[in-house]
Write a structure and sequence with these properties.
By secondary structure, the chain is mainly beta. The protein is built from 12 helices and 45 strands.
């Protein structure tokens, strides 16, 4: 049939190359009958990466398609859980992201950042959540997902800004009829970290099948799991050395302790650090060993964030006539995801009443007077009236730090599509409006001014502390100072000594609200030249159109949060900004040659987009792609894209805000280079000589305060992305594709100097001509009087470059085994380079095969996802093997206990059983071998490991049941 039809040849080639060219990992429905294709029934389709509809749906760029079967077999209630297993992704924010987090879930293609990954729903941009334009994929209606298409490589010419790393398109179910109910439950072998999910989808046709309406509702509830529930995360760990130089992990934590510590010049027997006992006496601070004085902040942190999520989506379409159809989609999503950290650690230089303070032991008063006492001694007893020191206190009495994030998304899409008469030309015009609101309440913060106020006690003219009849002091200033209660004196000197009244005075309730609003207008027209012109390979496919996008973001914090007068969570100033952009685009598909010897098909794809931004002006993006199908067995393909990314609202308009990235002070006791040359830079930049290379300067919890902010003068990033590869199908049952990719990003937006860690290493590197005393790098490092770092100032600039190269490999093999159908699917990525340069002239840092404080999440050189599925009659079973290659720590100057992660293999087993025509039961086990995550010290992300990459929950069981009518 169709032996002389070009249409038939296209269908034949599509079938030959479709599975691997689109790198699909869907498990097929087994035992299906072979369909008889009629020429009249052949339908043109549109795939991600192009707006042109054509019969030959094989993409000229690698596209991974994740089918609904994978979501069901793996019980992926949260979409990011499945996407993070793909080799093309580096884990973004997920259920373990307690700090940092924000209560959202993200996808990060190629590790180039969530702001360089464009998220679509049925080919239309999803509404962003954050000022950085990141989409919270919790808002995607998971119960309606038909498949997820992942296109890696630049796609700005087709979809616009942000599609630098690629596109993730969530394709929703079409023309659903009937009732579908699904419920599932999962729990770990420990009986915790439960996740329950339920969904109900209703749909049907009307008006003689001219219309269809679908309504889907989903509810998800995820239980909290605290870090003390697992050995790996119950105790904060750090790197330590034995006498023979060998390294081990010992209990560690924060110098902000419940009893209050002071690291300063004290008598020799104190070793430069002291801690208060509960009776107000003072003793040396124990800084090493299994029984040290550091506060273990780990147990009360979330290991799994709790969540309550509601999704409601309704969509429908109606054929007005044979050439016109109206369609709509409305979505509502609400996600409540709290976060919890240990009680506030306050680190603050404060003045406190010393002489006669009933909270401080008399002997301790003398020791402190000699070390940190002021110049005034009213009663002449040799003890200063007040002392001033950098106090470190864990405010357990105030309670844990809790953020209650409530995210609500609403979007509405309406459009009109159809064809121009009986021609091959179609149109689609649409409007989308959406809004995401995030309301946050922070508990556990304290006001810094009231903290100082509560330390100064009332005294008489002779300098004596005034006591009431019960021997209790009072505040020198009793004003409420913004609190709900008047000042109550604070006994900071000893664990558990802060009274309930003093804690109430310190507390400050902080809240914020943010809103991201998007309006999107667009139309496109597509068709081909069949009626008036054809190339030797067939008619030219054409698409062109226009899009206008208006986006705005506002962040409104309460006063304490905006002013940064709190201790606890990071201060955040108000943000308000927006942009609009008009975009014009055109695409063409040119089938140059078809049906000749050694050239079954040679085609070319061209695309161009011009965007006029209110912020950066006009920018251009284009694509050139092509393929050469030698025969039914072999096909070559290649593409080149010029992609752009305009700076987002946060990068442009954010005021200066604080953050705490992982970074150690090169002048601290943890410095890898403790030479005289480094010592000289330390003292010249404000470190007291006797504090250099001492624990006084050690970063609290391995984090250094960073002040960053936006820059309204930023310009667009430019990326050149290229891929070249081949698809080979030596037999009907086997297909293999290999694609090389190369991504170069110029004028990348970086914080000055590449971030805090890089700024510090450059400033204090004697051999680096960019650093040293008086350099721009040292000028942004701000220190306190005791020499410890107060903050490092980092502002955004177009100064960086990023390069990523590697190879994607996909194989798919099907066969009959033991009376059933078996399919083996293999997806792998080998990354040869993943480097960045934070500014011109700086060191090029290659993160391929590394992890750590500079590169962050592990980026293995090799990673794969392989499934072996077998099905017969009503039963399907799948074994999933996820392999994560070994990585090494990225800091060559520091030796950690865990320098190499080693390679990791995770195996998941799952199955589905169809009970009659209407019911389906699925069950499975994740992390079948109960493989434990690697443990780290100072080079960990959180929970002493990297919980988004390595499983911290252990063996997990799940079961689900579905009913369809």
């Amino acid at each position: 049939m169709f032996t002389n039809s070009k249409l038939a040849k296209s269908v034949k080639l599509a079938c030959a190359f479709g599975a691997v060219a689109a790198t699909g990992i869907s498990v097929p429905a087994y035992a299906q009958e072979d369909a008889q294709v009629e020429e009249a029934a052949v339908e043109k389709v549109q795939v991600v990466g192009s707006r042109i509809r054509k019969v030959d749906f094989v993409s000229n760029a690698p596209v991974a398609t994740v089918g609904i079967e994978q979501f069901e077999l793996t019980n992926s209630v949260n979409t990011e859980a499945l996407l993070n297993t793909l080799p093309q992704t580096i884990p973004g924010l997920d259920r373990s992201s307690n700090n940092p987090g924000g209560g959202i879930a993200t996808v990060d293609l190629r590790g180039l950042g969530t702001n360089r990954t464009l998220v679509l729903i049925d080919g239309v941009r999803a509404v962003p959540t954050t000022s950085g334009g990141t989409v919270d994929i919790n808002t995607i209606p998971a119960a309606l997902i038909e498949n997820v298409e992942v296109l890696t490589g630049g796609a700005s010419a087709v979809y616009g800004s942000d599609a630098v790393a690629g596109v993730v398109n969530f394709a929703l179910k079409k023309n659903f009829e009937g009732v579908d109910f699904n419920t599932s439950f999962e729990t770990t072998e420990e009986g915790d970290a439960e996740i329950w999910n339920g969904s109900l989808t209703l749909g049907g046709n009307f008006a003689d099948d001219r219309g269809n309406v679908v309504v889907s509702m989903q509810y998800t509830e995820r239980s909290a799991l605290f870090a003390d529930s697992r050995d790996i995360s119950s105790v904060a760990l750090t790197d330590a050395a034995n006498e023979d130089g060998s390294l081990f992990l010992e209990p560690f934590g924060s110098s902000g302790v419940p009893g209050t510590s002071i690291f300063t010049s004290l008598p020799d027997n104190f070793g430069g650090a002291a801690i208060f006992n509960q009776d107000g006496s003072i003793r040396p601070f124990v800084r090493s060993g299994a029984e040290n004085d550091f506060y273990n902040f780990a147990p009360v942190n979330y290991l799994q964030l709790p969540q309550q999520r509601h999704n409601i989506t309704a969509m429908g379409h109606f054929e007005i006539n044979d050439t016109t159809e109206v369609y709509m989609r409305g979505s509502f999503a609400n996600s409540d995801v709290p976060q919890q950290l240990a009680a506030t650690p306050i680190f603050q230089t404060s003045t406190f009443t010393l002489d006669g303070n009933p909270f401080i032991d008399p002997a301790a008063q003398q020791i402190l007077s000699d070390a940190v006492g002021g110049d005034v001694d009213t009663d002449g007893d040799g003890i200063a009236d007040t002392g001033t020191a950098f106090l470190r206190r864990r405010l357990l009495e105030v309670g844990p730090r809790i953020v209650e994030d409530d995210n609500t998304m609403f979007s509405m899409l309406a459009g009109l599509r159809g064809s121009f008469g009986d021609s091959a030309w179609t149109y689609d015009t649409y409007f989308q409006t959406g809004r995401v609101n995030q309301n946050s309440i922070q508990l556990g913060n304290v006001n810094r001014g009231r903290f100082d106020q509560a330390l100064i006690l009332a005294t008489d003219e002779a300098g004596n502390v005034v006591l009431d009849a019960d021997g209790n002091p009072s505040c020198a200033n009793t004003a409420a100072n913004g609190s709900l209660v008047s000042c109550s004196p604070m006994n900071l000197f000893g664990e558990g000594n802060i009274s309930a009244d003093a804690a109430d005075f310190l507390r400050t309730r902080v809240n914020s609200s943010s809103e991201y609003e998007q309006k999107l207008y667009g139309f496109n027209i597509s068709g081909d030249t069949m009626d008036f012109f054809e190339l030797p390979g067939g008619p030219i496919g054409i698409a062109f159109g226009f899009e206008r996008r208006e986006e705005s973001y506002s962040f409104d914090p309460s006063q304490d949060l905006a002013a940064g007068t709190i201790a606890g969570f990071n201060g955040s100033g108000p943000v308000a900004g927006g942009f609009d952009v008009n975009e014009y685009f055109v695409e063409a598909y040119l089938p140059l040659v078809e049906g000749v010897e050694f050239a079954e098909l040679v085609d070319l794809e061209l695309a161009y987009r011009y965007a006029d931004w209110s912020t950066v002006g006009g920018v251009n993006a284009y694509k050139i792609a092509g393929s050469w199908t030698v025969n039914d067995t072999l096909r070559f393909r290649s593409s080149f894209n010029r992609a752009v990314r305009a700076p987002n609202i946060g990068e442009l308009f954010s005021p200066q805000n604080e953050g705490f990235p992982p970074a150690e002070d090169p002048c601290s006791s943890k410095a890898s280079n403790q030479s005289d040359a480094v010592r000289a830079i330390c003292t010249a930049t404000g470190v007291p000589a006797d504090a250099v290379f001492t624990p006084t300067l050690d970063a609290v919890s391995g984090q250094t305060r960073q002040i960053g902010g936006g820059n309204p003068n930023l310009q667009e990033e430019t990326a050149d992305t290229m891929s070249v590869g081949f698809v080979i199908t030596p037999m009907d049952e086997l297909s293999v594709s290999v694609d090389y990719f190369d991504i170069d990003i110029e004028d990348a937006v970086f914080g000055f100097g590449g971030g805090t860690n890089n700024v510090l290493s450059t400033c204090y590197n004697p051999s680096n001509e960019l650093g040293g005393v008086g350099s721009a790098f040292c000028d942004v490092v701000n220190r306190r009087p005791d020499g410890s770092i107060d903050f490092v100032e980092i502002l955004s600039q177009n100064v960086g470059s990023i390069k990523l190269t590697g190879v994607d490999i996909v194989a798919d093999y099907a066969m009959e085994v033991a009376g059933g159908d078996m399919r083996v699917n293999y997806l792998a990525t080998y990354t040869t380079e993943s480097s960045f340069q934070s500014f011109a002239g700086s060191e090029v840092i290659d993160c391929a095969g590394t992890f750590g404080n500079t590169c962050g999440e592990p980026t293995p050189e090799y990673v794969h996802r392989m499934t072996v599925a077998w099905g017969m009659d009503d039963f399907d079973v799948q074994l999933l093997w996820r392999f994560i290659g070994a990585t090494e720590d990225d800091d060559e100057g520091t030796v950690y206990f865990q320098e190499d992660t080693g390679s990791f293999s995770y195996f998941d087993l799952s199955g589905t059983y169809h009970i009659g025509e209407n019911y389906r039961l699925n069950a499975g086990i994740r992390n079948l071998a109960d493989r434990e995550a690697p443990r780290f010290g100072g080079n960990a992300e959180q929970s002493n490991t990297y919980p988004a990459t390595y499983d911290v929950f252990g063996r997990t069981y799940f079961v689900g049941i579905s009913a369809s009518f």
